[in-house]
Every structure is written in structure tokens, then in C-alpha cells.
Amino acid sequence: MNRDLTAAPPRPGTARGRIVRRAGTAASLLLLVSTAACTGHHDAKSGASSASQTPYVTSSGLPYTTPSAGTALGSTGEPIPTKIPESAHVGTVPAITADQLLVTEDHGGQTLGIHVIDPKTGRTVSTVDSASVNFWAVDFGIVGTHAGLPSILAAEDWRPRGTRGKADHVLTSYSGDLLNPSEIKLPDDTRLHAQNESAALTSDGRFFVAWDDAVFGLRVVDLKTKKATGALRAVGCGPFTWVVGHDVYSPCIDSGKIIKIHISDTGVPKVTETKSVFGKDFIGSRDAGWSPATKTAVMITPEGTTYRIDLSDGIPDTTIDSIGTLKLAKGETPGAPVLSPDGKHFAVEISKKVDEQSVVQRVEVYDTATFTKAFTIDPAKVGAVSGIVYGTTGTSLYVLSSKEGAMGSVWTVTGFDPASGKKTSSATLTTTMAAVGGLANLAAPIEIGGS
Description:
35 strands; 4-stranded antiparallel sheet; 5-stranded antiparallel sheet; mainly beta
């Protein structure tokens, strides 16, 4: 008899529907029994089969070891090991020396790679994966070993769900092995400004100070007790933190003043002095550099007007006037000035927008006292410029640059004599740079123990 394939399916309440359901239940039971038979194991003595153990992988408890020669740790291909189980390695951050530099690469906004490099050879000494603060790097390399101070100190915003959900604001110390970095939890309302010269360490390394946009002022963290100790509102001032001992100086753009904030031994900030020092034509700037050794700042406005601020004797009593103006072509803008450790020279990137991207056109170096141009660095000779910095010892001005190669960007660090501009070194970085859009930065470690 032919079956009507267009007939409606059986209704659940009918006899035919109950038969169909029972047949389906029987088929499910057969499938379950056959699956259990496949996954069970046979007991040789009793001849019975029993269910397998819960299929979860538990930790083997292998100890972490320092990488041996040839261990890749992600930078190059590593051969298949002959020893099973394979050794578990962990990276380390040894003490940083004054002749090394820090290269920071952008991994897409929220995470960063911090590489400690030897600028003479291009070799990567150590690498840390960190988090950005409002898409900026706020990190410090610290020369040598000091009680309680790390090799790298980084302010970080960790966002487990990206831009959704709550963020953890921390100050992280990276030293030795990287299994358990030490963290100082910052208040939930922390919003560090995260700009050039907007964070610093006091001269003795005791306190971390940073301009905070939520406070509209200064936030202080005690690195000894590992606690946030205070915050001070100073609307209209900042965001620079020029540190002399336990005193923090910062300009107040709107009022033309400079404010002095003292950090007590318990980490409490207090305004101790305010003076009007800038002339009527002062328009302020968000770009400035600082020399801790000479206690001198250089500030450059978007139009190129340049100010030298000497704080060696505290806030000056005389008016601070411009020392000169950079010669800029149409569409060109200056970056943040970088001062040499002795304060005698400052370097500045001159950029211009090309296809909506800011491209460095040249690096100019000036005498800080006379505003005389010492020399110019042409990107055509070194590659696309991503960062400039004077080495901690002051013997070289370094330029981080890149050129396109057969396998992608080739990153180079080139050293120049700070006075004459003569090239003194050039090295290709050995690290695999994963910077998104070619964004990277260069920094020199700081020395603790100055005045």
C-alpha cells in the first residue's frame, strides 16, 4: 500500500503519536548504552566494564625553570622536544643597566609589549606584556637594584571584558621571574592622565605621583607601603609632574601660575606655594620635557613658541618669557621636547599629517640656553621615526625608526652624538615587533638617588 507522504505528523495525544515517542525513546536508550560501552574500560579480573573516570586534565605540578639556550619563548620557532613532559619556562626581568633602553609597542590599544634592549647591538634583554592607561604607556625602567623597587614599574588598566565591564587599575612591579608580578591596587575612580611627563617617581623612589583626570589633580602612591596615600584637587593646573625631592611642580595654564605640591613622609600631598610667573602672551602647551639633574623644563606650544623653566631654586620670582619660536612650515606641529640628562640640549620631532597619519618630517636639536639649532636628523637617512630619547648616561641621542623589508617592518635604533649630531651607532632590533600601525615608543631608564 502506498503511504501518503504529505500526511500531517502524528498529534502527541493520539495512539500513533505515543508509539512514535516510545520508538524514539528506545532509540535514544540504545545510543546511550552503545556510547557507554565505547567509553568504558574492561576490568581484566572481573570481566566487567565500568564507566571511565571524569575526563578532566589536572595540573602536572611541573616547576617553572629559567629558559635554557635555544628556548624560544615565542620569538622564533622551537624544535619538538625529545623530553616528555616538556619543561615549563618563565621569562625574567634582570636588573636594568644605564646603557639600556625601553621600547614600547602597541598591541592594539589595551595591551603593550615592553622590551628592554641593548641599543648598541639591538638585542632584546627581557620582555614584559603590560596594559595601557587610556591607550598610553605609563611605565618606568629603573636602573640597578634598590630595596623595594622593581626593574620596571608600570601603571596599568586591565579590562577583562574590553570596554565593557569594570576595569582594574593597578601599579605593577616587574622584577625577577614573571610568574607573580606585585600589584598595588588603585582606587576604582582612578583615571590617570597618561601623557608625556604626567607621571613620575620622587627622587628617592618612595612615591609614585601622577596627574589624575578624575581628581583634576595629583594622586600619590607609596611604593614602600604599597598603598594609595592621597589625592589633591588642583583645577586648572597640570598635567605635568616635575619632581624635585618630594616636591612636585606643575604649570597652571589658565592663570599663568606654577604650583608647588609637597608630598609628606606619609604620602599626603599639600600645596605649599603658588606664583604667577608667565607673561600675558602665554597660551600654554600640552608638550613639555624635564631634566631632573638640572631641574629644568622646556615647554613648546603648538605654534612652536618655546619656554625654558628653571626650577633649581624653586619657583622663580621673575617672569618666564619665550626663548624663541620654532620655524614650522604650513601644517607642521612640534612634538614633546626631550631633554638631555645634563639639560644642555633638547630634541623635538616636527610632524605633519599625511593621509590622516602624523608623520615625522625631521628631528631638530637645540641648545637649551641659547635656543641655537645644533643639528637636524633627516628621516630619509634613518627611516620612519617613531621615538627619540637621550640615553641615561647622556652620551647619545637615540632614534627609533623603521623601514619596510621583505618580511615586514625592520626596526632600528640609531645613536647620535648629542652635541655634534654625528652618528655613533646603529643596530637592528632582534625582537619581533607586533606594533599595530607601526606605533612604538622609546624611553630611557631612570636613576634613583638624585636630589
